[in-house]
Design brief:
By secondary structure, this protein is mainly α. It is 72% helix and 1% strand. It has a two-stranded antiparallel sheet. Helix 8 packs across helix 12, helix 8 runs antiparallel to helix 17 and helix 9 packs across helix 10. It is globular.
Length: 404
């Protein structure tokens, strides 16, 4: 009798309300977009996109992550959430322009998407990615994020009147409302931009806020494939898809790996010609729709993800307005918001890279190579950092085996 009651206790008897999962989905979409869209715009611009092309890329990934979320959640009846690759966008900032310009960058996005599709279709490829040491992968990510995380500091020096208020609001937010700290900082940054436009008579091109996609025929260069596509693929898999699966498993959901990875890979391929750098499974933000905040009825939390997906589609359609806002910003303001948005991820990746003391030196070497920003043969530092870290790790482990 008591065991039967214990088994039935978790499910409330009253009719489940949709208010909680729907509100959780709304919060998820708003936080996911406002906390890192400036990183996406900065990354696309860094690899050669014009303002219109960057807005197009933001629109494509936002709409497609919404579509992907709706499809996966509805299909599996699980609270799966698809997101853009924020670490991937940060990688674009670190990489900068590639040989062949923006068309070559688009080609690299396409290649990365195809590799993700193959990973979902060929299980051994996924297993190979999972074998990349966490210390090296996280050190590469930390090195990629470093330059952006310096944005609040350099911005405050270059433009204290515009950046310091943004940083102060973020700091207060971290203390009292951490989930909304970055969105609050963005709102202050938006106010700074509006004030700047009003006081300087900056011209606003009304046509620039009209939603539109800028398609580009992809080009493929060796430098872009090795220096951008491969690191983008590895960062997306190691810091988004694999952790995203782990987060969902920790919340009690066994997400179908092949189905989810193939869908996000196809979405990345579709987004690429419009300038989208790729979509993937949500990692940190996955808990917003899959956790208790989405309601006590676990079987109905997928409604939160569907809500989040539909709202993301609507937000994506208006992405051009956000792109225009960024182009009007005074010096240092937007890069400061981007840096604040990535500080938490930077701290987590740096901590994870140093947890295994046996791999401390390979992790430090990986981090140092990425942070140096070197480009050898036109190939970005992220690729060489991964090579250097794995080589150092291999040499050290061979020595250990020989001495044992």
């Amino acid at each position: 009798m008591s065991s039967q009651l214990a088994h039935e206790a978790p499910q409330p008897r009253e009719s489940p309300s949709l208010a909680q999962p729907i509100s959780a989905g709304i919060v998820s979409a708003l936080v996911a977009f406002t906390s890192s869209f400036v990183v996406v715009l900065a990354g696309l611009t860094a690899v050669g996109a014009s303002p219109a092309q960057a807005s197009s890329g933001l629109m494509s990934v936002t709409v497609l992550m919404g579509v992907g979320t709706v499809i996966l959640a509805w299909w599996t009846k699980m609270p799966i959430t698809v997101a853009w690759s924020t670490p991937g966008a940060a990688l674009l900032v670190t990489t900068g322009a590639v040989e062949g310009g923006w068309p070559a960058a688009v080609g690299a996005f396409l290649v990365a998407g195809v590799l993700i599709v193959l990973t979902g279709l060929v299980p051994p490829l996924g297993a190979l990615i999972a074998r990349i040491p966490t210390s090296v992968a996280q050190a590469m990510l930390a090195g990629v994020l470093l330059q952006l995380c310096l944005g609040p500091i350099t911005g405050a020096v270059a433009n204290p009147a515009g950046v310091v208020p943004v940083v102060l609001v973020w700091l207060v937010g971290v203390r009292f409302f951490p989930r909304w700290a970055v969105p609050a900082a963005f709102l202050v940054a938006a106010a700074v931009v509006v004030l700047h436009v009003v006081t300087t008579d900056a011209e606003l091109d009304v046509a620039s806020v009209v939603p539109r996609l800028e398609f580009v025929a992809p080009e493929f260069t060796v430098q872009a494939v090795i220096g951008l596509a491969l690191p983008l693929y590895l960062v997306t898999m190691a810091s988004q898809n694999v952790p995203g699966m782990a987060v969902m498993k920790g919340l009690g959901y066994d997400v179908p790996w092949g189905r989810a990875i193939v869908l996000t890979g196809v979405g990345s391929v579709v987004a690429a010609p419009a300038g989208g750098h790729g979509i993937n499974l949500a990692a940190i933000s996955a808990a917003l729709t899959a956790g208790p905040e989405a309601g006590p009825h676990r079987a109905r939390r997928w409604i939160a993800s569907v809500t989040s997906g539909f709202l993301a589609i609507l937000i994506g359609i208006g992405a051009a307005a956000f792109g225009t806002l960024v182009t009007l910003a005074p010096e240092g303001v937007i890069i400061a918001v981007a840096g604040l948005a990535l500080l938490g991820t930077f701290a987590s990746s740096l901590k994870a890279s140093l947890e295994d003391t046996a791999d401390l030196l390979p992790a430090v070497v990986t981090f140092a190579v990425v942070a140096s920003g070197i480009a050898i043969g036109g190939v970005s530092s992220a690729f060489w950092a991964l090579v250097a870290g794995l080589v150092v790790r291999g040499v050290l482990r061979v020595g250990r085996r020989a001495n044992s």
